[in-house]
Amino acid sequence: MAVAELEVDILANSQLWRGHEGLLSRALAAAAEVEGKFGTVSLLLGDDASVAELNQQFRGKSGPTNVLSFPPAAGSAEPGFLGDIALAAETIVEQANFQGKRFEIHAAHLVVHGFLHLIGYDHENPADADVMETRERVILASLGIEDPYA
């Protein structure tokens, strides 16, 4: 019997991510397990400059954002490829400090949030936001991480 797995390809371009790769990989694996979605995810552990560039190029928005998700284009993806997630270190540090959270815990929440976007979840309206936030809570709880919305 084959074991379903999630492969995470990580590219880190900021020293702020050093030592946090393991937790982020575990958070992605937990999301994949809870959602029953397996394959490969590329994770850019970026800085604000690299994520700002992606944000401008793909969303037409200036400046960095905490997390970006890029599902594969229809019909163009390799089998099993779930998509790309990019995290902006300095923005996440700033948000974590403002919210009184640890950087790595906030980053774990955001990588789960990004994964859920890859597999089709969204938060464009209140009902969809409630569903997505509930899934985030379940996944994070499986890692022993408290409710990020409490």
Automatic annotation (TrEMBL):
<keyword id="KW-0540">Nuclease</keyword>
<feature type="binding site">
    <location>
        <position position="113"/>
    </location>
    <ligand>
        <name>Zn(2+)</name>
    </ligand>
</feature>
<feature type="binding site">
    <location>
        <position position="123"/>
    </location>
    <ligand>
        <name>Zn(2+)</name>
    </ligand>
</feature>
<dbReference type="InterPro" id="IPR020549">
    <property type="entry name" value="YbeY_CS"/>
</dbReference>
<dbReference type="GO" id="GO:0005737">
    <property type="term" value="C:cytoplasm"/>
</dbReference>
<keyword id="KW-0255">Endonuclease</keyword>
<dbReference type="Pfam" id="PF02130">
    <property type="entry name" value="YbeY"/>
</dbReference>
<keyword id="KW-0378">Hydrolase</keyword>
<dbReference type="GO" id="GO:0004521">
    <property type="term" value="F:RNA endonuclease activity"/>
</dbReference>
<dbReference type="GO" id="GO:0006364">
    <property type="term" value="P:rRNA processing"/>
</dbReference>
<dbReference type="GO" id="GO:0004222">
    <property type="term" value="F:metalloendopeptidase activity"/>
</dbReference>
<keyword id="KW-0479">Metal-binding</keyword>
<keyword id="KW-0862">Zinc</keyword>
<keyword id="KW-0963">Cytoplasm</keyword>
<dbReference type="InterPro" id="IPR002036">
    <property type="entry name" value="YbeY"/>
</dbReference>
<comment type="function">
    <text>Single strand-specific metallo-endoribonuclease involved in late-stage 70S ribosome quality control and in maturation of the 3' terminus of the 16S rRNA.</text>
</comment>
<comment type="similarity">
    <text>Belongs to the endoribonuclease YbeY family.</text>
</comment>
<dbReference type="GO" id="GO:0008270">
    <property type="term" value="F:zinc ion binding"/>
</dbReference>
<keyword id="KW-0698">rRNA processing</keyword>
<keyword id="KW-0690">Ribosome biogenesis</keyword>
<dbReference type="InterPro" id="IPR023091">
    <property type="entry name" value="MetalPrtase_cat_dom_sf_prd"/>
</dbReference>
<feature type="binding site">
    <location>
        <position position="117"/>
    </location>
    <ligand>
        <name>Zn(2+)</name>
    </ligand>
</feature>
<protein>
    <recommendedName>
        <fullName>Endoribonuclease YbeY</fullName>
        <ecNumber>3.1.-.-</ecNumber>
    </recommendedName>
</protein>
